[in-house]
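Take a specimen:
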Amino acid sequence: MLQKSRLVLRDGTTLDELIDVDMNEVSMRVMNDEELYAHEMERIFAKTWLLLAHDTEIPNPGDFVMRDMAEDNVIVSRDRAGEIHVMLNVCPHRGMKVCLAEAGNAASHRCIYHGWAFKSDGSFLGAPVERERMHGDKRGKEELGLKKARVHVYGGLIFATWNYEGPSFEEFVGDTKFYFDQLFCRTDGGLEMLGPPQRFVLPCNWKIPGEQSGSDGFHTLTLHRSLMEGGIMGGTAESIYDNAPGMYGVDISCKQGHSLRCLEAALTFKMFSNMSFEGKTVDERLHMLPPPGITPELIPQLYKHLSPTQIEQLATCPPQVGGMFPNILFAFIFAPRTDGGASGALALHTYVPKGPNHVEFVNFIFAEKDAPEQVKRDMLQNSIQQTGTSGTIEQDDADTWPQIMRNARGVMGKGMTLKYQALTGHQKPEGWYGDGLIYPGFTKDDTQWNWWMAYRDLMSDA
């Protein structure tokens, strides 16, 4: 049985009143409450692992990019030895931003206010007029560096957390690592960023897109109906509600709130070809329909980096969309080309809180580093057209989220509830290799409800 949460808001409202575990309902007030938002900054964004960048953005010593860990601005930097650091972009002298550029290369960072300077690893170099010791005598230089976050690089993705005593990255990912490896850790060169991330700000709370990233597959059938009618996501205008292959597969989740949607490769293949997977070997299937971003020439590398069971899953029921709690969505999707190929689109979104009423949508676009340049160009085009900030998919989402936010501000609206009552229940299919909470068949509400349970667990911790 779940323990009662300890969080109580100033008006006496408890977290258990906002998240009704017995009814699987969440009050819309959670989308527009400043006090709750302040608790989220402390209990979620100061404690969980957050995605900031990719190591191909900062390939050389001295390279840096500026990013946000919720409301905290940070410098993501590579030092002389090649190590990656994430440092709070706040001068310990008088609180000014140390770095003002969005990206660049610098052997050191110097605050424009009083000139305090810091190495690319965050350590304190000194203040102007060294003989006058303008940093004083109370603290040694080793105490005056930039505040540093804990860093982990996974498949080139740079994660950081302020929680040095909390779970390791491996513990944070949990059972879903078996599936994430199939996306991020599958080739010799790994992924590379195709240019800087796209960014724009939406007038909505971060949890609105965040909970959708908990593998909300069903909205594809309705909100993105035009894409299904056009054959991009399967189905036809005549049979969209009766024959929607994109709605069937295996959904996966875990107690940490991460999730994935694995869709049958055979059904996906029918969208591109009249040929059948029937009787084909794993290797034959991989060559008939390589995973998004993988060319036939890269398939041998899969066998070097993944286990036989992971490779079999890529060939039969690969993960394609999903999310990492609290604010990441990934879309590794098949996308047809005019020449009959399917180079696909590889994208990651982060939803960065910008106050209780705004979120920054950050879109990272990838390709395999060893893929041919033409494939990279195709994938960049596919990703921008579909999952980019003005893409066909994201235009639909970006219209819906602010409308939900507006409703959550109303006196009556904030008393309404979000309902997650279409539940399949965990039932691992026979022969399924990966662990986690498994939900086969038509996509339901299970993974999103697990997202809210992960949210509740963290918000219950003082």
Q: What stands out?
A: The longest strand covers residues 359-368. Residues 392-408 form the longest helix (17 residues). Residues 7 and 13 are 9 Å apart (CA to CA). The mean pLDDT is 91.
